[in-house]
């Protein structure tokens, strides 16, 4: 099979001058001198007597914290502001503590933890000896804050990428996120769980992955292959012996969690009879939970179409069995040129077009990135604050003078920003997938009212419910205790300014304030 060209990405550069901190007890004192010919070691002695030979700092009962990455580690000894506080800058860290000081599923480059036997320590020391000089790795992600559902208007909603990142490379900026490219190790789970596609895996991109997948299945079929079963596995996992069964097609990806629902469903649309995610190393709890959420959503979608349960599943290398297979389907021809949601809908629409026992709607579990919105007509005042915060543009205002709140279900991320922002608690969201593509894409009206016209100039400027709410809430306010002031609430902005300027009582009140 010919190779699929992978689109280039940026590079992240590291520089290490070989400054090494060896953290531990007497073992650190024994090991550090042997590294002096290649690196510049110093010891942070956590316990035991001080011995000459290499630069040494006794911990002396102080706390110790590490942050950073290859070439730029910061080690904090004690509490900042205290007399005994010290801040050390090093390029590399060898942690010989019983429990790692950096407790992450994916540690930064340049940090090595070893509490094992001599053989493991020899491997670590050998790796450390090569960690001096210039290094680079791909920039694995791209981020578009414009469509990010993390937050709007001071409200925080979606935090899926932060919760799942095994490298702790993502931080919240309240309304957007920030990804530390030096800490990011390409786990990819952040892109998998992102409902909008704001954070994208770019090395390889979904487009390149789908092109590779489509070519794999096409070449197999053109060679006379039947019933292709796709096994997806991570390149960084333990060595994998391909199954002897001829219809098992193995596709390696950078990390198993870097591909999600849109890729799995596309594989079925391209003709795979099943998709198995072969886990050959223990992934972190957060990544595993995120992958299970995606698997649950995929299963709910497929079973609502009438397809067998279990055709997409997470399994171990020794548990690959033909338990549940898709029926023979016409092969889809779409590419992955669109964004994440467009790709998912292309796959879903193709599978739905081939289904013979599909329901019109799939009920989905909480956490699914598709769904509907309902609005209480009694509570909604059409203030449209929800429209302003909706990252997917699922909620929209009406056109013309008619006050309306409209909804496009295909755009709904189920992020919850609308529910947390609505001042009247008038909005509810429900995870589901509407299979009819036309209905899913068309805007429909959730709530509308007749416009309220200015009692002076006749210009429409609000809805009756908004004016009534204002009158109710300001009824006890000292500035609205006469008929003229109350009438002013029924004026548009321009007429209200004119009326205030002509009202001596109003002007007097403004001066007193």
C-alpha Rg, in Å?
Answer: 30 Å
Mean pLDDT: 90
**What percent of residues are in strands?**
15-25%
Task: Give the CA-based shape.
Answer: flat
Separation, N- and C-terminal Cα atoms: 79 Å
List unreliable stretches of 5+ residues: none
Per DSSP, the total helix count is 15
Domain 4Fe-4S ferredoxin-type: 175-204, 371-400, 403-432
Keywords: 4Fe-4S, Iron, Iron-sulfur, Metal-binding
InterPro entries: 4Fe4S_Fe-S-bd (IPR017896), 4Fe4S_Fe_S_CS (IPR017900), Fe-S_Ferredoxin (IPR050572), LdpA_Fe-S-bd (IPR057431)
Pfam family, one: LdpA_Fe-S-bd
Verbal overview:
The protein has 513 residues and is an alpha/beta fold. It has 4 domains: 18-131, FAD/NAD(P)-binding domain (3-Layer(bba) Sandwich), CATH 3.50.50; 225-356, no CATH class; 371-448, Alpha-Beta Plaits (2-Layer Sandwich), CATH 3.30.70; 451-512, no CATH class. Helix content is 27%, strand content 24%. The protein has 15 helices and 28 strands. It has a 5-stranded parallel β-sheet with strand order 4-3-2-8-9. Strands 18-17-19-20 form a 4-stranded parallel β-sheet. A 3-stranded antiparallel β-sheet has the order 5-6-7, with no helix packed on it. A hairpin with a 6-residue loop joins strand 23 (395-397) and strand 24 (404-407). The longest helix is centred in the middle third of the chain and has 20 residues, at 285-304. 37% of the residues are buried.
């Amino acid at each position: 099979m010919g190779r699929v060209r992978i689109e280039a990405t940026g590079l992240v550069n590291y520089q290490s001058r070989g400054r090494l901190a060896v953290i531990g007890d007497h073992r650190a004192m024994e090991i550090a001198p042997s590294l002096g010919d290649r690196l510049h070691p110093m010891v942070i002695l956590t316990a035991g007597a001080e011995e000459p030979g290499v630069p040494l700092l006794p911990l002396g009962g102080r706390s110790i914290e590490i942050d950073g990455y290859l070439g730029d580690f910061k080690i904090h000894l004690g509490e900042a502001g205290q007399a005994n506080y010290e801040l050390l800058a090093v390029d590399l860290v060898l942690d010989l503590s019983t429990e790692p000081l950096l407790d992450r599923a994916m540690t930064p480059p340049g940090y090595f933890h070893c509490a094992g036997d001599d053989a493991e320590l020899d491997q670590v020391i050998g790796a450390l000896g090569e960690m001096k000089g210039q290094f680079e790795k791909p920039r694995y992600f791209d981020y578009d804050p414009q469509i990010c559902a993390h937050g709007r208007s001071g409200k925080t909603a979606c935090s899926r990428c932060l919760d799942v990142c095994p490298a702790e490379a993502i931080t919240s900026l309240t309304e957007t996120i920030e990804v530390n490219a030096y800490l990011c190790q390409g786990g990819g789970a952040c892109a998998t769980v992102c409902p909008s596609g704001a954070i994208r895996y770019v090395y390889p991109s979904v487009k390149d992955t789908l092109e590779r997948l489509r070519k794999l299945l096409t070449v197999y079929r053109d060679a006379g292959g039947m019933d292709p079963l796709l096994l997806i596995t991570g390149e960084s996992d333990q060595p994998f012996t391909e199954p002897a069964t001829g219809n098992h097609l193995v596709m390696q990806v950078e990390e198993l969690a870097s591909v999600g629902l849109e890729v799995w469903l596309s594989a079925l649309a391209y003709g795979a009879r099943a998709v198995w995610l072969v886990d050959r190393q223990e992934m972190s709890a957060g990544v595993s939970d995120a992958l299970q959420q995606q698997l649950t959503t995929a299963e709910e979608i497929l079973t609502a179409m009438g397809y067998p349960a279990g055709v997409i599943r997470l399994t171990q290398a020794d548990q690959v069995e033909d338990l549940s297979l898709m029926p023979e389907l016409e092969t889809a021809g779409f590419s992955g040129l669109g964004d994440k949601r467009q790709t998912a809908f292309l796959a879903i629409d193709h599978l739905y077009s081939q289904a013979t026992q599909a329901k019109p709607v799939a009920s989905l579990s909480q956490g699914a990135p598709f769904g509907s919105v309902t609005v209480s007509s009694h509570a909604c005042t059409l203030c449209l604050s929800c429209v302003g915060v909706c990252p997917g543009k699922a909620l929209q205002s009406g056109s013309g003078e008619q006050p309306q709140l409209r909804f496009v279900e295909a755009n709904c991320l189920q992020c919850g920003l609308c529910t947390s922002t609505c001042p009247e608690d008038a909005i509810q969201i429900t995870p589901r997938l509407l299979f009819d593509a036309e209905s899913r894409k068309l805007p429909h009206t959730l709530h509308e009212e007749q416009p309220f016209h200015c009692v002076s100039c006749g210009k429409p400027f609000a809805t009756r419910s908004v004016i009534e709410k204002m009158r109710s809430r300001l009824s006890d306010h000292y500035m609205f205790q006469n008929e003229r002031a109350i009438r002013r609430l029924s004026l548009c902005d321009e007429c209200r300014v004119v009326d205030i300027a002509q009202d001596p009582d109003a002007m007097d009140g403004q001066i007193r304030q």
